[in-house]
Write a structure and sequence with these properties.
This protein has helices at residues 48-51, 89-104, 115-127, 154-167, 170-180, 183-193, 202-212, 217-224, 233-237, 257-266, 283-286, 288-300; strands at residues 4-11, 14-21, 30-34, 57-60, 108-114, 131-139, 244-249, 270-276. It has one domain: Rossmann fold (3-Layer(aba) Sandwich). An 8-stranded mixed β-sheet has the order 1-2-4-3-5-6-7-8, with helices on both faces. With 303 residues, it is an alpha/beta fold.
């Protein structure tokens, strides 16, 4: 019988919000859905109920987002203070891995969108045999990471040291965040991210805007825009032991489909690449029927 559950999990003193649909089926792994930057567990609104018809399906708010705690950001080389948090892929992945161990308590298939994909890959390394596979949905390629600096135009390389100094200033990041979190800017970004316009509705605007109005909402933004040197998806997949399936929006404005094709042709762990025509960075929400069919197929072949 399908069930529904929402809860708060205490992780290292922080409150982590999560929801569950469905009941565990011994024939299939449990599903853990990991949202992208600026999103939340509700971004899986059109996927979690469907996936919950075959097995238990969890969606989790990462630290800093949704209804989870939003601790003060600690940047690299800053002294640790009580209650602060380093917003990076190791820490978010540790959150997901501990959630799987303490709450899910069964083999898992990790599904991540955007930076949630990088987090899923790192969490799968931590979980080892407890993870059966990973699905990357328009995974973040992190083109501005220091390790990819040689790919950038000369002007961008020249200003990089000054940019790093500038964005460390909290007053600047707070003001940038306030602008980015305004309804008008969110709407414009959604029009880019969802080129077909499908499912860009009032519900979507509210589920993205409401968490940004909480007192600590700018902290994850401050931490993330200072993340210049962290994991890249290909390095995490180089020796990965579990299968990886890629789902990509054909018209993703930020993560080029060519990069996904390059990964699929060069990394042994990648089992499939499916391209959803006419959609952008969030195919799971823009074309949920298509993505749900693909995810159900992956679930049935992963165990």
């Amino acid at each position: 019988m399908k069930t529904s559950q929402s809860n708060i999990w205490n992780w290292k003193g922080w409150e982590i919000a999560w929801t569950k649909k469905g009941s565990f089926c011994s024939s299939f792994p449990s599903i853990v859905l990991i949202h992208g930057f600026g999103a939340c567990k509700e971004h899986w609104r059109h996927n979690q109920p469907t996936l919950g018809t075959v097995t238990s399906c969890y969606a989790i708010d990462l630290v800093g987002f949704g209804n989870s705690s939003q601790p003060r950001a600690r940047l690299q080389n800053e002294q640790k203070q009580p209650g602060d948090f380093a917003y990076n892929f190791d820490n978010w992945a540790a959150q997901v891995a501990d959630f799987c161990k303490e709450i899910v308590q069964s083999p898992v298939l990790l599904v991540g969108n955007s930076i949630g994909g990088v987090i899923a890959l790192r969490a799968s390394q931590i979980l080892e045999q407890e993870c059966c596979g990973v699905v990357l949905i328009s995974c973040a390629t992190r083109a501005l990471d220091d390790k990819r600096l040689e790919e950038q135009p000369n002007p961008l390389r020249w200003i990089r040291p000054w940019l790093k100094v500038l964005v460390r200033q909290r007053w600047l990041s707070i003001n940038l965040f306030r602008n980015a979190a305004s309804p008008g800017v969110i709407t414009r970004v959604l029009k880019q991210a969802y080129p077909s316009g499908t499912n860009v509705d009032e519900h979507l605007l509210k589920l993205l805007q409401l968490p940004s109005q909480r007192p600590g909402a700018s902290e994850a933004f401050h931490g993330f825009i200072n993340l210049f040197d962290d994991y890249l998806a290909p390095e995490l997949m180089t020796n990965l032991k579990v299968p990886v399936d890629l789902i990509w929006g054909e018209k993703d404005p930020w993560e080029p489909i060519e990069e996904a094709q390059k990964w699929a042709s060069s990394l042994k762990c990648i089992r499939s690449l499916e391209v959803i025509p006419g959609v952008g960075h969030c195919p799971h929400d823009e074309a949920p029927e298509n993505v749900n069919l693909l995810l159900l197929k992956v679930i049935q072949t992963t165990m």
